[in-house]
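In the design runs reported in the main text, the only information available to the sequence generator was the tokenized backbone. The following block is the verbatim input for one such run; it is reproduced so that readers can re-run the procedure and compare outputs position by position.
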């Protein structure tokens, strides 16, 4: 009898162990499914989330996002009041959402091996800013749907915002084509078009703009431009150009951007410092500078840059110096990308001649300093040029 009981016990124990193992596996699967939507592909990773930032799957399951949280191609991303978010997408693109924004990620796929991909986003309300990545750089289809039409991207840096019954568009590099809903009309904006900014109401009425409207200005166009035009030693004609100039091309290499972004995410100290900061800081003291000009010696280098940590942006900045042929002047603005600053020159001149160029910068010594470099050249004569490096602090 004793042997029989022992045999019976030996038979029962494996069954209990197997049941426990199956239960544990089911629990793990349920936990994983609550964090990572099934049947979904990763669309990007959160690099900044302040306030209430949620990812909602199928309109029901909400996940609070924080730094490093993944987002998927079935998610609806929302930001609450006084909230904001930034995402590094799988193709290296950068997506920034303002407060009270809702964006649907209908699809977002990029294959590193084939270098093929496509993306479709839908802005329901609020505002987004995007620096596109390798999907667009490799010729893939990248679209953003809005209440008044679908945007086809031919550039790298653009902004769109829904305000009441109007949608505002702005292009800071390249071009976009807006296929207006219920019409054969296509609104084209950008550096090769007549206008870089426009608004469209729900009836399809288009209003083109010579400069960024107030709703788009924050984080992109310097509030100091008017003061610069009044106080600098430019002619009235140049001052007019400052007020109406459409934004120049941003020097942007998507593959480099992707690599720098991934490196930046691993920099815990800088990322954490930025996430903890609030308010705006003006960096205007030049610690170091080295400036070269094709026409001789330079003097009087000055630079200032306002960094808005609440809106993850650089609302505006200026740099200026003199050489034998006059003053070089450039105004710029852009976005915070962890320890990097993605900047674009809005206006540049040399003496009485228009110029263009690029500028790059990053945080140094924690958040105490900003260092970077720039290059400028006259538009009509590229042999007249200047470049340099700088380090500034508040």
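Verbatim output:
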């Amino acid at each position: 009898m004793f042997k029989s009981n022992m045999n019976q016990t030996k038979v029962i124990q494996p069954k209990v162990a197997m049941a426990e193992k199956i239960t544990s596996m089911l629990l793990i699967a349920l936990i994983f499914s609550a964090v990572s939507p099934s049947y979904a592909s990763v669309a990007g990773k959160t690099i900044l989330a302040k306030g209430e930032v949620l990812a909602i799957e199928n309109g029901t399951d909400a996940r609070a996002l924080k730094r490093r949280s993944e987002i998927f191609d079935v998610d609806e991303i929302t930001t609450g009041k006084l909230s904001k978010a930034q995402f590094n997408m799988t193709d290296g693109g950068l997506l920034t959402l303002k407060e009270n924004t809702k964006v649907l990620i209908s699809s977002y796929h990029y294959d590193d091996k084939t270098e093929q991909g496509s993306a479709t986003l839908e802005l329901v309300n609020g505002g987004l800013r995007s620096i596109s990545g390798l999907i667009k750089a490799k010729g893939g289809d990248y679209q953003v749907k809005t209440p008044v039409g679908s945007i086809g991207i031919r550039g790298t840096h653009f902004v769109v915002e829904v305000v009441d019954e109007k949608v505002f568009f702005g292009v800071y590099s390249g071009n976009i084509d807006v296929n207006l809903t219920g019409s054969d009309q296509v609104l084209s904006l950008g550096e090769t078009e007549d206008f870089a900014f426009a608004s469209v109401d729900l009836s399809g009425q288009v209003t083109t703009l010579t400069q960024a409207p107030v709703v788009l200005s924050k984080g992109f166009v310097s509030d100091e431009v008017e003061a610069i035009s009044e106080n600098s030693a430019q002619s009235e004609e140049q001052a007019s150009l400052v007020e109406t100039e459409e934004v120049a091309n941003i020097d942007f290499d998507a593959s480099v951007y992707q690599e720098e972004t991934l490196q930046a995410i691993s920099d815990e100290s800088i990322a954490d410092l930025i996430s903890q900061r609030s308010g705006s800081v003006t960096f205007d003291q030049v610690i170091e500078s080295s400036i070269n000009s094709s026409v001789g010696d330079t003097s009087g280098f000055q630079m200032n840059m306002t960094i808005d940590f609440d809106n993850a942006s650089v609302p505006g900045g200026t740099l200026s110096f003199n050489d034998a042929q006059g003053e070089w002047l450039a105004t710029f603005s852009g976005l915070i990308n962890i320890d990097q600053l993605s900047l674009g020159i809005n206006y540049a001149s040399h003496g009485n001649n228009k110029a263009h160029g690029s500028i790059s910068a990053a945080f140094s010594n924690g958040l105490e300093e900003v260092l970077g470099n720039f290059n400028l050249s006259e538009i009509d004569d590229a042999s007249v040029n200047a470049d340099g490096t700088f380090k500034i602090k508040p």
